[in-house]
Amino acid sequence: MPEKVIIIGAGITGLSTGCYLQMNGFETEIHEMHSLPGGLCTSWKREGYTIDGCIHWLVGSRPGNSLYDAWNELVNMKEINFYNHEIYYLAEDDKGNCIRFYNNIDKLEKELLSKAPEDKAVIMDYITSARKFSRMKMPLGKPMELFTIADAFEALVKMGPYFGRLRKWSKVSIVDFAARFKNPFLRKTMENLFVPEMGVVFAMITTAWMNNNMAGYPIGGSLEFSRLIEQRYLELGGKIHYNSRIKEIATTESGGKTSAIGIVTASGETFNAACVVSAADGHSTLFELLGGRYIDPKTADFYNTQLTFPSFLLLSLGVDRIIESESSSLIFPLTKPVYIDPSTTITDFNIRIHSYDPTLAPEGKTLLEAMIPTRETDYWCNLRNNDLKEYKAEKERIIREVTAGMEWRLGNIDAHLEMKDLSTPASVVRYTNNWKGSFEGWIMTPKIGFSQLPMKFPGLNNFYMAGHWVNPGGGLPVALMTGRGVAGLICRQSGKKFRTVHF
């Protein structure tokens, strides 16, 4: 009989873990609290529109790199239609000025120098590094528990020419880098590259990926992509229990050692296994399902001191007309500030125009989406739990005020508005249980850089963790690589050679 592994969570990490373990002869079962796969990599329907809740780009979308090869172990990449954006985003101010943040590095260099010649030195810091990183062949990441001397040598060969720049720019946050610009409009544009606290090296590498057309958007959206990996997992013989919330990770003691032996669900069912993998929320796994008993000092320090990605509100509007734009992503000022919650008031708006994916809206219509970051998860959860009427009223107010505030830029939206939806941090917690409603786990700040957290914990055998809570930086590649890595770790523990199968 093959060894049985129970996986908690059917997000991209859990599905990836299950696929790789099935490839290597294990019997696996995934338990997922929601009724759908994907976790945060999801979509939902509203009045004929498909709201895409996750993917803006997929790193590894083009053949010729290790991430593409790894994705091709889970989905048939040749059957996915990827769209490559020409412009990362178009930033505008209220005076008619604009900056096109091109994905092509040569075009980006000309654009930034033409708009802010006084900042040539800082612009060239960014451009030179992005151009250098565009030649970088990154090896597929491994968990530190599997890292060997051969892996270190491979990393030295492939990454050696880039170590200096990686080290330098991982120590500077996006917001601190932006502060170096004299031109206030360019400074503001750079601040909006991604989460401000993230190391600017992430933005530089993203520009390099975009320049190489290896970070395209999969037509069909997030849930469709998740469904492809779910299908692969089921075809490999895996089993998924949906609507299965976990109450406890069961353990036993023998010979002075404690081992994970299965799970207990919220409904009281017990499922036994040779080992357990949590691909779910890290905080609830460690502090609730395991009672806080098995945490190493480094992991404890992360949960006590390190910064998570914020939560978010996702505003989605279905408009009964085609909205033309040279860029699919626009940042522009609202006509007046809009209060969101006690610590969030927005004056500028970042909206995504989904006309590049015809599957998300009926013909002749347009889906608009805007992600509004916030750290007020408790506020939104308490409001929903204690005063549902007021919660709904606040969502309606925000939709109304934001829509009015952007009509000067996008035309008479209200007259053509036929779908409106606003998810909140309370939605994130309800459907994913992510700690603080975070959308990607730990931010790769200058303080923590490229560090990883352990997948195994002291004093507990046969238990592993994977996903965004063990590898800072977030994104679908982290989900894939940690799922692949933990499967390799379990194979080594069982004396098996890790094998994969490509499409």
Strand content: 15-25%
* Low-pLDDT regions: none
Judging by the overall fold, what is the CATH architecture of the largest domain? 3-Layer(bba) Sandwich
**Name given to the CATH homologous superfamily of the largest domain:** FAD/NAD(P)-binding domain
N-to-C CA distance: 27 Å
Biggest pleated-sheet summary: 7 strands, mixed
Strand order across the largest sheet? 8-7-16-17-18-15-19
Helical content class: 25-40%
Q: How many beta-strand runs?
A: 20
Radius of gyration based on Cα positions:
23 Å
Structural class: alpha/beta
- What is the global morphology? globular
CATH class of the largest domain: Alpha Beta
Note the total helix count. Answer: 17
Quaternary organization = single chain
Number of domains: 3
What fold name goes in the CATH topology slot of the largest domain? Answer: FAD/NAD(P)-binding domain
Average pLDDT over all residues: 94
